[in-house]
Amino acid sequence: MNSHADDKETAAAVSDEDGKYFDKDGTPTFNIKEDGTVDWYTYSGYRRFNSECHVCHGADGAGSTFAPALANSLKTMSYADFLQTVAEGRQNVGSGKENVMPSFGDNKNVYCYLDDIYIYLRARAVGDLPRGRPAKKDDKPETAKEQEASCMGG
After folding, report:
1. Could you tell me if 63 and 57 are in contact, meaning their C-beta atoms sit under 8 angstroms apart?
2. How far apart are CA 49 and CA 59, in angstroms?
3. 96-148 residue pLDDT tens
4. In the CATH scheme, what architecture does the domain 8-139 have?
5. Where are the beta strands (DSSP E) in 30-135?
6. Do residues 139 and 85 lie in contact, with contact meaning Cβ atoms separated by under 8 Å?
């Protein structure tokens, strides 16, 4: 894993492609308006995380006895490392404890929404997004509808 540090300044959105935001390095990021409205991808990531990942990683990425708090992990995990870990899984064995992250590379409900999940967790990690369901969200962009249909086979 590469050394990586994320914070509000690093995660700041500088570009927007049909409602999907990117930071200065071209990494997907979130956009939360002053009134609390989140971009579609942050909202979608919330939904996907809380349907597929929360069982081990806890509600809102807060962690559990099974798996780490991703709302903290993403402060130091790069986008590339996140994608690789979710797709391939990871196994940490040591000090009498075994942690296994299964591979989700074949789960369309995860891999079709990897960016969304990353964006949501990034918003949680740098502290801009409180716990719980975002109260307001932007409409789903056409690009998101097309990508979803293409990936899910619909």
Report:
1. yes
2. 8
3. 666 778 888 889 999 999 999 999 999 999 978 999 999 999 999 999 999 99
4. Orthogonal Bundle (1.10)
5. 90-94, 97-101
6. no
